[in-house]
Amino acid sequence: MKWGNIHQRGAFIEIRYTVNGERLHYTMPRGSTMREAEAMRVELRYSVLHGTHIRPSTSTFGQLLDEWLASDHEWSNNSRLSCRDSSRRLAQAEVAPGLPLGSLRVRDLRLPHVEAAKQSLRAAYSPRTVNLALECGKMACAWAIKLKLLGDNYFTEVKRLTPARAERRALKPDDAMRLFSACLTADWDNPFAMFVAFGMTSLRRYNEATGLFWSDADLVQGTYTVRRGWDDNAHEFMANENDKHKYRSYQLAPAAVRVLEQQRKRIAHIKARAESLRITWPDNDLVFPSRTGQPLPKSSLDQALTALCEAAGVERLRVHELRHTGVSLLIGLGCSKWQIMEIGGWSSLAQVEATYGHLFTEDVQAALAKFSTIFEGVG
């Protein structure tokens, strides 16, 4: 007699069989063929005969999340806590009035349930929090599928939310001048001040400026070459091999040259102070070293930038907004998109347009107004 029966139930194929007098059924993933179902039937029979059979899950999705969290994962404590919080939110998400996702039986879970849970979470949490919860659901289901507790992972089919992009801020000319002045007059023990001034006058990104060596700069010719970047997360230098941070040479604005000239003097002062404190100064050629001669950490740079903005009496900026400030100043001076692309290091005009197109719109209107003055009084 053939062991187990295969039945087609709508879009799903179900394998029904008996173990120790108990009737069980296993649901195949959507899109499975009868050939694949037959192979699974044989595999299930083999597991029953050899004592390795795992009973198809009759637990709820909330119980599945708990079992997954309790299983042996090589997680840090922070990761485990984050997953626990995200799983709790996912289990509490309503898929129907008064019906949380966690109360559904695992074998009854379908794509509309996951979509409904996503919308429920979206109404209460940020996109990042929702995405973390959906990712936990995806990992838990993947774990269950390996154990043959689940046939399909619907969390892989749900589109993640796009986090809202932080508003880009840029200083107006008067405020930029005050911040620049605060940098030049900052205490000479402050290793961050010249970095801030250089970021605003050169339009360089954090990792490019942090990875700049003196051998890359020619202050006489007013040029420098980006040959590497600093990865603050990995704490190592990286080669500039992609379009965003590629190996190329740039022109320096006279204001940026002035910053580098003062920075050379400041490094001598910072290095002498480090040696007086018996701090071993590394043998490197960094243009913007910390008080110990290492690349500037981004977290400390954020704090220093906030202090400099407060000292200058301007609104608080993030590090990357120094670059936006420089670009907005150039646009205000009438620079073309092509000139800004060359100065800022973008690989195409489309990238400049996508980021700063709204600023150019204002300039076009001003240009048309000037153009119209030629014909005023005629006729």
Task: Please provide a written account of the structure.
This protein has 379 residues and is mostly helical. The protein folds into 3 domains: 5-49, no CATH class; 61-157, DNA polymerase, domain 1 (Orthogonal Bundle), CATH 1.10.150; 176-317, Orthogonal Bundle (hpI Integrase, Chain A). 49% of the residues lie in helices and 11% in strands. The protein contains 13 helices and 10 strands. The protein has helices at 34-49, 61-70, 77-92, 111-122, 127-146, 173-184, 193-202, 206-210, 254-276, 298-312, 321-332, 337-344, 349-373, and strands at 5-9, 12-19, 22-27, 94-96, 99-100, 217-218, 223-226, 228-231, 236-239, 248-251. Strands 1-2-3 form a 3-stranded antiparallel beta sheet, covered by helices on one side. β4 (94-96) and β5 (99-100) form a beta hairpin. α2 (61-70) runs antiparallel to α3 (77-92).
